[in-house]
Predict the 3D structure of the following.
Amino acid sequence: MGLSRPHKVGNGVSARWVSLFCIASFFLGVLVVNRLLGVPDPEKIDEEASSLEKRQLRALHPNVNCEKKEAADRAGDILFQVSQTHDVIMALDKTISSLEVQLAAARASKADNGEGSPVVTKTGSEPLKERQKVFFVMGIMTAFSSRKRRESIRETWMPQGDELKKLETEKGIIMRFVIGHSATPGGVLDRAIDAEDEKHKDFLRLNHIEGYHELSSKTQIYFAAAVTKWDADFYIKVDDDVHINLGMVGSTLARHRSKPRTYIGCMKSGPVLANKGVRYHEPEYWKFGEEGNKYFRHATGQIYAISKDLATYISVHRHILHRYANEDVSLGSWFIGLDVEHIDERSLCCGTPPECEWKAQAGNPCAASFDWSCSGICKSVERMEEVHQRCGEGDEAIWHTSF
């Protein structure tokens, strides 16, 4: 009967169209799935990009790693060179400091014949052309009226005659009583010192007028004179009523031999005494601040030591260094503005028996002994022998001590 019509499903859509739609949907699904499966992970993209970038950098800069290694090596070399440079600078600083000291000493030595020389020279005596190199110079401050004190020292801790010369040649230790001249040069007092010096050969005569209120000036001139005559590692000032153990003094100083600008003694900081009529009165008390203030740190005056460059500094600048009433305060003031190491050495300020005796029995003899109440050994002429016997290190100790 004619062509048959396509079969329709319940909703009126033919089966052919349904088949075509299913096939199309299948291919569309395959296409979509393939695209989804082909999308890379973002983290993988970053890693691949980074890896690619590194490969490109290596390709463009093949020496980057080598340069980093070389940079690290150079940094290590720089640190090593900085360390070496620091050592060289320190060595140069010491050399320059030494040269400055030698130059200043040469100037002081040249001035030995000129006006204002710190040393009294005898008529016809030849000037010292070259300074003797020694370990330390000990200047024992004394006065015209102190002959008995000097004798008590000569009979106890200070070698005499050939032993004094041997001490200089073998140990490099110079010991001299330090004194100036009277207000009338050439008078009875000066002739008495000349005769004593002729006998013992143990004086250093200064171009200085003796007087109790001139101790600061005397101390200043002493250091200038000592630097002029001897090239020492240390210069010591000691009073003539103090007991000394030379071996212990040498051992103490030897520990600080390599240090520049050292100031060694019993450091203190006492009150500034403003009232007139009291001992150690300071007329210039107002310079130290309000009433009741204390002095700056300084070594007590019975004994102290300074290194060569500090003694040279005093020698070169002695004409402009201010002198206070008390010589130990004056010395401390000269170093206030300098790079100085203050060494508080308590073995230099032991008491007399029984204190120093206890320490000697314990095998630790004192380097110096005196009584604080007397600013020296009380009645030193009568007691020096006793202190020496009970607190001394032994007369042979100095010869068996290595510095």
